[in-house]
Design a protein that fits this description.
Radius of gyration: 39 Å
Shape: elongated
Oligomer: single chain
Largest sheet: 7 strands, mixed
Distance between the termini: 53 Å
Strand order of the largest sheet: 9-12-4-7-8-1-13
Number of strands: 13
Order of helices and strands: EEEHEEEEEHEEEEEHHHHHH
């Protein structure tokens, strides 16, 4: 998307208003089973339902640039330098060139297509970065797209950004977050983030007006005087021209030297661009490896949980466990369906209730046997004692559990 606006006034306080698209919103119908089938270049599916409540966090959000040159005009990357002990990403190599004043949602026309986007208005600090604003203005006038990258951060009270169906590389849907910053970058993670508006015209001085009649004699006299002055100064002008030609030759020599330096700088920029591409490829490979490890860990935890279930029910034989077979199969199925470790921790333990169900069935069978024995044997007291011994031996480990309490076997 091309930049369309940069404020038409250069205010006396040096603040240059601008507008920017932060990111594109995807339609709700593109979500299937809690996963976005349409997403931005960074893999995120932003939905208006969850982004609209966070528009307030755009106000006072900083606009950052990592400059590539000493004159602070060439845009590079994020300027990210690491993560501190609180989990906060730091951008020590970046410069804050302005701030947003508000965020809003609007329909943006781009290449004949209307897109629903989250946008922001703010200002650039033209006092501190005059060359940068001037270069940005020139790019906009020449139709150059100035792209950006928005950062989101965990909301207050959360340990991280909350996604609808957990984090995934593509189609993840953030539902609880805040906007933390926006960077103008050379290689954006989300190409829908662009500068929309930057005013480019300065206030013009009023033209003077001439009133009254014109005296032709005065004009003729003025013309003659001017011609006389021109003739008298002709020789002096020729001398000045000679001097200027000498200066021009010197400047041409200086320009040639600068062209050499510019050529060297362009070569350095190409190397930096290649380094950025290599870093991007390495990061993508690292994320793929992390995802593989995460899945392997989840498989190991599933096997561990299944082993704990089997161990907890090992005191019963297959006939005794038959009465709770459906409950046991369902519990194992729930564990096997988990993909993330966090999901395993959320599965409520059903083992104690399963053990209780098995024991109650054993007791019921024993009581039926007791009743049958009472009808055939004369010593009911002796039979009763035998039933008590069997019951205490089989079910002595059963604890009475309050149904309102969550019980975990892990």
């Amino acid at each position: 998307m091309a930049i369309v606006e940069l404020s038409e006034k250069k205010y006396k306080n040096g603040r240059r208003p601008f507008k920017a698209v932060l990111y594109e919103l995807q339609p709700p119908e593109s979500v299937e089973n809690g996963i976005g089938t349409k997403y931005n270049k960074n893999g995120i599916t932003f939905l208006e339902e969850y982004c609209a409540p966070q528009l307030g966090s755009i106000a006072d959000m900083s606009v950052r640039v990592e400059f590539l040159d000493e004159n602070r005009t060439i845009i590079c990357g994020h300027g990210e330098t690491g993560v501190n002990e609180d989990g906060l990403i730091t951008f020590r190599n970046a410069s804050v060139v302005g701030h947003f004043t508000r965020g809003y949602i609007d329909d943006i026309d781009y290449e004949g297509e209307t897109k629903r986007c989250v946008c922001g208005e703010g200002y650039l600090d033209e006092m501190c970065y005059p060359e940068f604003v001037a270069n940005l203005e020139e790019d906009l006038n020449n139709g150059v797209t100035v792209e950006g990258s928005v950062e989101i951060f965990k909301a207050k009270g959360n340990t991280g950004i909350v996604y609808m169906n957990g984090w995934r590389e593509t189609g993840r849907i953030p539902v609880e977050f805040i906007h933390s910053g926006w960077d103008m970058v050379m290689n954006p993670a989300d190409t829908s983030s662009i500068v929309l508006e930057l005013n480019e015209n300065q206030n013009k001085e009023d033209k003077q007006k001439m009133d009254g009649t014109i005296d032709m004699k005065e004009i003729t006299s003025a013309i003659k005087e001017t011609i006389s002055e021109i003739n008298s100064k002709e020789s002096a002008l020729e001398e000045k021209i000679s001097e200027q030609n000498s200066v021009i030759e010197q400047k041409d020599s200086v320009i040639a030297e600068k062209d050499v330096k510019i050529s060297e700088l362009n070569a350095s920029v190409e190397k930096l661009q290649k380094a950025l591409e290599d870093t991007k490829t390495e990061n993508e490979t690292a994320w793929e490896q992390i995802e593989i490890l995460r899945k392997e860990i989840a498989k190991a935890k599933v096997a561990e949980k299944l082993g704990e279930v089997d161990e907890a029910l090992s005191e019963f034989n297959e006939d005794e466990k038959a009465v709770a077979k459906e409950d046991i199969d369902k519990l194992k199925s729930d564990i096997n369906s988990c993909e993330n470790i966090d999901e395993l921790n959320e599965i409520a333990s059903e083992v104690n209730s399963i053990k209780s169900k098995i024991c109650m069935n054993i007791v019921a069978q024993q009581k039926a046997a007791e009743k049958q024995a009472s009808a055939t044997e004369p010593t009911a007291e002796t039979n009763s004692e035998k039933v008590e011994d069997i019951f205490s031996e089989v079910c002595e480990s059963i604890e009475v559990v309050d149904d309102d309490e969550d019980v975990s076997i892990f």
